[in-house]
User: Fold this.
Amino acid sequence: MLLVEQTLEKTFKIAQKLIQAETEVPVLPYQSPEDLRQILDLDIQSETLSPDNFFEKLEQLILATPRTASHSFFNQLFGGRNLPALSGEILAAVLNSSMYTFKVAGAQVLVEQAVIAKMLDKVGYMEGDGTFAPGGSMANMMAMIVARNEKDLSIRNQGLRGQALVAYTSEEGHYSTTKNAGMLGIGRENVRMIPADAFGKIIPQELENQIVKDLEAGLIPFFINASAGTTVLGVFDDFEAIAQIAQKHHIWFHIDGALGGSVILSQKYRHLLQGCQKSDSFTWNAHKMMGVPLTASIVLFKQPNILRKHFSEKAEYLFQSEEDYNPGEQSMQCGRRNDALKVWAAWKYYGDEGYEARINRVFELSQYAANYIQKSPELELLQQPESINICFAVKGKSAAEICDRLDKEGLIKVGYGSFKKQKFIRLVCVNPDMDEADLDNLFRQIKKVAELETVA
Ligand SMILES: Cc1ncc(COP(=O)(O)O)c(C=O)c1O
Assistant:
């Protein structure tokens, strides 16, 4: 039988092995899903395992999983390991609170409120409202739900009855806008993809032209999504200009800051978010640039108490007291995991200053990478990075093939993207614990698989 002490001890042993393995083998040699199924004992059997047998299988599985905290992981908009947040995450699992009532979650509700209040303050929403959502896509969805219902207050109770609602996003915006429109009765075809300029920023004049056209056609523009850090290029839209358009035409203005919301923590770079306080809602993923374990997604609203207006339900069995401290009346879910503790733990430990240094460091690493590319005649920088996504090509070589070979040969995890029909490698410098030598290694490996350089 498993005992608590033994379970914790063995679990931490596996975690330690993984952390050690990460430095020794930062990228696992490629194994296909079929190979993995063969090697790992994944089928659930009928009998109970012995503790030793159980931990052996668990260890085997953990060590066979891609290593997102390694110094060779540049593939995604998250990566690395934030230690105070890790501590918060582990303890959240040990506590196993459900974040719907003060009765069940107690002090954790206050932790969540403290994190949301801090974020509201940073964004510049004076009073405001906010909640944790299960991911940035769902945070964006909550904003779209509120915008839809605010456009026509009958929708929450009576549903859509033919209202021709139209949403706007940039062609460089995250795909969650169309996905959410497809799920919320808006319709994917009623999302206008507004062209981006040569740097990947939405063109405000194009946005306004489209809105005017839709109004003339008798449609109802209800939602503008702008990006603080686009997924591929990592650029920031012009929030001042978009706010003006939104105000003029009475359209909800949402900022998707899933990637770049955290830039607000840096005095040096927060100018990228200028005008963000003029938006109506704001998505912020702490699991990206703040480095906490997935998922930690927050959606903030300028208007106080707006979540309760659109998400509360009566449930006598659950909401029995402390009305103001029952976040379940303001969330999309019923049972909800405690994502706030890890964010609070990291922010409490680093403080504003520590976090600012971490954000500045990832910008510094990104600039190092961009400079390296510019100095290498065989590489071509697509454009100066505005934040932490560095997009570049190896001249005359396929980005997709290079990324695939780096992965299959167990060298580096990095991905590719495209913009205006040009395909390139998208390197993400999101882990502040990396250093310049890690980037040198990345470029060495890229040149090696592109057959530009021999590496010992
Ligand atoms: C700009 C942007 N918005 C939203 C998302 C979706 O966030 P999540 O993966 O947490 O659903 C992403 C994910 O990469 C993103 O880059």
In short: Residues 77, 135-137, 174, 176, 227, 229, 231, 256, 258-259, 285, 295, 297 surround pyridoxal-5'-phosphate (CB under 6 Å). The chain has a mean pLDDT of 97. The first helix runs from residue 4 to 24. The chain is about 40% helix and 15% strand.
